[in-house]
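Problem 12. The chain below contains 607 residues. Write out its predicted structure in token notation.
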Amino acid sequence: MRSFILFLIGAILLAGGLVKAQPKHQFTLGDKDFLLDGKPFQMISGELHYPRIPREAWRDRMKMAKAMGLNTIGTYVFWNLHEPQKGQFDFAGNNDIVEFIKIAQQEGLWVILRPSPYVCAEWEFGGYPYWLENEEGLVVRSKNPQYLNEYENYIKELGKRLSPYQVNHGGNILMVQIENEYGSYGSDKDYLAVNQKMFKDAGFDGLLYTCDPAADLVKGHLPGLLPAVNGLDNPAKVKELINQNHDSKGPYYIAEWYPAWFDWWGTKHHTVPANQYTGRLDSVLAAGISINMYMFHGGTTRGFMNGANYNDQSPFEPQISSYDYDAPLDEAGNATPKFWAFRNVIQKHLPAGINLPVVPPVKPTIIIPQIELNNVANLDDLKRESKSSQNPLTFEDMKLDYGFMLYRTTIPGGKSGIVKVKELRDFAVVMINGKTVGTLDRRTGLDSINVSLPAGNVTLDILVENLGRINFGKYLLQNKKGIVGKVFFQNNEITAWQNFPLPLKTVGSYNPKPGLVNLNTPVMKKGTFSLSSLGDTYLDMTDWGKGMVWINGHNLGRYWRTGPQQTLYVPREWLHTGKNEVLVFELLKPENQKLSAVNKPVLDRLQ
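Solution.
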């Protein structure tokens, strides 16, 4: 009787149009091809990351994907966005991945889901939430019980929301990836098997797979699952490698095909001409191999979410905010020459008589000649409650996830000598009695500054910026931020600190005021501007020093005159006709008061 009632209720809802039934499909592995409902299916996919695109623009980017010929999109899922504090989940606004997947289905796109939970992705801590650093004894990417417990809680939460959208449940998620390039980190097959079980227990009961660079695939794949390869596009070699690790059969999937690369501060903007890749794309598609372009559209790594690279052979390399990636779509979502070249290749491999959709036109842009920033807040206006300690506290000690920390102490003056900060992470402005005297920079190894102290007691301030936790390699668990070691003056340790966290997360509570002059330390500046028409634009930060910008409450990311990025992309979706508000947190040039916006990005200028 109960079953009949439930059936009747469902029938009534369907008849009334309140629930739209979606057909269930089968997506399986053939000997050579992926099979969708028993028929060969070649994925032509491109990577899109929902937090790197304004929610209001998700659909537009997907329409562009269809127009280039893609039938699938791939996306990572970012643990640190969805569980920013332990046990506190967030799937709202730009974190609403369920809506992202629904829009893809409405636009006729399949989805490859990559919830790892480690993503790399040039993303803060590789996607891990910062608070894992505070779990004593926790070891990521291992069978460590503490890690597996936190991991399982997260994957179960994800499964509740996303597993219903698998293709075998009427959704558009074709495959789900477990772990991510694990072979570049370890080779524990038992750990990978634990991953597989967790995903299944969380409701991901469709097709699971692993992906690794070619050199590490043997270590990173789990026997029985499809191994996908990254960074290899020679069809014969792709097939040979997969056959060697998958019972001498396919199907064949390049999970990350790189048509370009990302950027980091102080290094030239990376670009690769399209003609170096069109032939490779043509040969891969002709061979029937499925492919996921990393990236189809990079977008912007806003806020504090950029990661960093570091190993024993290279310096600390924090990534820039633009994730333009020289991809087929530029940072603003417009077609590039690479888009048109790849579209022409894909068109060749479509069934006869099938034509691609018309490509949407380039979006309008606007110029803003001048914005005055006359309202100012200094560091004392921005700091909140402090905590006292003998030695400086790390971000993690203060439960500060991202942003800045102001360290303050008093030392006897009338001396000259070197102030040295051991284990600085990552950039610091050093101030004496409220005046900037220099900067320190982990990238260059600069951890000391020569100072002359006036007579009497002297206030020493050190403002430290977290430039992004390491996202790849063996140092994932050595990622604490702030002053991790000790501070010395004339080789004597400095103690008795006040630690002021500056998360700068919700900037609406800050209220810069007019009238502050002769500023010598980092400041928050505020201005307004009025618009009669809307369009994408790019704030020109060339004449500024270093900091962050917010438009109408939206964090646009970091700027730094060291380059190569000199502009910050402002999506038209975040602008209003009439009054708009801009906030700039400037570390190095507090005297600046004017800002303008141009109609083209500048991503390739080093200072």
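Discussion. The chain has a mean pLDDT of 95. Students who got a different answer should revisit the alignment rule from Section 12.3.
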